[in-house]
Structure formats: C-alpha cells, structure tokens
C-alpha cells in the first residue's frame, strides 16, 4: 500500500491490567492486604454493588500492557500496523511512543472504540504517572480539539454509532465486526487479559490487541460509508486490497495470519 501517503488517522486500542499495589495504597491503607488481595477485595465489593454482578475495576487503577496502532492514509488505506515497543512491551515506553506519535503526525485524527470512556483516560493517567508531554493533545488551543466530545480530531466509534450514548450497544465491537464478516472476538477476550499477564503471556495479549485494532479499522471504514465519505464499492475494494496486504504481512507476524484465517465474507442478509 502507499506508504508515502500522509497519515490522516491513527486507529488504536489498548489492553491493561490493574496496579494492585497502587489500589491497595489508595483504597485500603493500613491493611495487611497484598496487591492481589486488594484487587480481589475491590472486585468483591463491585460485584455486590452491581445488579449484573460485574466487577470491572475503574480505569484509574489500570496500567497499559499493550497499545496496538494502525496508521491510515487520507484515502483510508492502511499504511502500517504494529504493537508499540514490541517485543518488550514496557508500559512506560509504550505510552511514550504513543504520545510521541500523536505529536508527530500533526495532521492526524484519533479513531477508537470506547476511547473516550477507557483508552484515552488510561493513556492520559499513564502520561501523568510517567511525566510525559504531548502539547498537541493536552494543550490544544482549539475549543473543539481532541478533548471535546464531538471533536473531529477524535472519532469514538462507539459514541458515533450509539448517538453519543443514547442507546446501549450490546455486543460492542465484536458485534459490529461480525456484522461485517470480520473475526471479532476469537479465543481471547478482554476479561482474560489479567490471567494471561500473570502467566507471562504478554505477546498473546498484544496479538489480541492487534486483532481489535483491525476490527476497529473495518468498523471505521463502514462508518465512512454511512457518512458518505466513500462508497460501498470503494469500501469493498479497500477490504479486498487489505486482505492481500495482511496475507503478505502474516509471513512475518503470525498473529495477523490468525486473523486472516478467520476472515469471513460480508453477508448483510438477516437471519442467515
């Protein structure tokens, strides 16, 4: 693909784990709880307070362990796809590379799925923790800049498709990807990340993150059809080109091969 094209969009996704030590210092000071037990205690409290028994610990206690990024050209072609700081995946270095990228690609917009609700708060708090700067994002003089909810500089696809939170999108990114015949969730899911990290399977987490980035990209393309930026025929041409590009890239990145092997055909007919 045309690697010389200007980067117009940065599609990204993150995976994270809870910093149990920080959580314990903040919520359970003076108790004998270990970091692991502090996490278990908060999860127990959250499950008890949630009607559905869910226990997702707030983003304020999370640390990124994967940041997957795709650079997209103005004509919506994929320019590059990677997980930052591979194969070390050091949290500080990953966060530093992300914000450097936002600063460097000065004509780019961010594209996420639930990025306003999770990924950007995670990366903002991580920049605060590590003492990192990104004036283009944090000191944007434009009142409709990155941090404005309806900004063209950040397209949160979940908000866009739900009328900015007017309805709940049951199924999330997985639903939308599968609507398009793309893999969506395969063997790994978000609630398995903590266990995989504890087992030292950081590469597996990053492979999963890369798959989510690709799903996000394909959903982004379809929203551009809805918005009239490209035609359905142009979208399908891009999808066909990308499948070939990914097949070639899979020779060096096995995780991409797994995604391509699960690549389906778009069939919009209901009930089939």
Descriptive report:
The protein has helices spanning 20-27, 35-49, 91-104, 115-130, 135-138, 157-161, 172-179, 193-198, 202-226, 232-249, 254-261; strands spanning 7-18, 62-73, 78-83, 109-112, 154-156. 32% of the residues are buried. The radius of gyration is 19 Å and the shape is globular. A hairpin with a 4-residue loop joins strand 2 and strand 3. The two termini are 34 Å apart. Helix 1 crosses helix 2 (35-49) and helix 3 (91-104) crosses helix 4 (115-130). The chain has a single domain (7-261), classed as Nucleotidyltransferase, domain 5, CATH 3.30.420.10. The protein has 11 helices and 5 strands; from the N terminus they run E-H-H-E-E-H-E-H-H-E-H-H-H-H-H-H. It is of the alpha/beta class and 272 residues long. It has a 5-stranded mixed beta sheet with strand order 3-2-1-4-5, sandwiched between helices.
């Amino acid at each position: 693909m045309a690697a010389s094209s200007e980067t117009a969009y940065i599609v990204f996704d993150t995976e994270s784990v809870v910093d149990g030590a920080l959580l314990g210092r903040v919520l359970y000071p003076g108790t004998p709880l270990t970091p692991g037990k502090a996490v278990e205690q908060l999860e127990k409290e959250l499950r008890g307070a949630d009607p559905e028994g869910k226990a997702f610990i707030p983003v304020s206690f999370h640390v990124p362990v994967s940041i997957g990024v795709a650079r997209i050209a103005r004509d919506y072609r994929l320019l590059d796809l990677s997980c930052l700081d591979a194969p070390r995946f050091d949290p500080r270095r990953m966060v530093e590379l992300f914000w450097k990228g936002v600063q460097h690609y000065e004509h780019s917009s961010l594209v996420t799925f639930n990025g306003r609700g999770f990924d950007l708060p995670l990366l903002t708090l991580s920049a605060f923790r590590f003492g990192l700067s990104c004036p283009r994002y944090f000191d944007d003089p434009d009142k409709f800049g990155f941090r404005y909810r309806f900004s063209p500089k950040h397209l949160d696809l979940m908000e866009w498709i739900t009328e900015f939170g007017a309805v709940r999108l049951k199924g999330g990114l997985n639903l939308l990807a599968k609507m398009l015949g793309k893999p969506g969730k395969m063997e790994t899911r978000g609630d398995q990340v903590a266990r995989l990290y504890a087992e030292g399977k950081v590469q597996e987490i990053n492979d999963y993150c890369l798959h989510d980035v690709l799903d996000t990209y394909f959903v982004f393309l379809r929203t551009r059809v809805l918005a009239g930026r490209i035609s359905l025929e142009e979208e399908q041409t891009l999808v066909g080109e990308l499948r070939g590009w990914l097949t070639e890239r899979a020779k060096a990145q096995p995780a991409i091969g797994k995604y391509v092997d699960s690549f389906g055909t778009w069939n919009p007919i209901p009930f089939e």
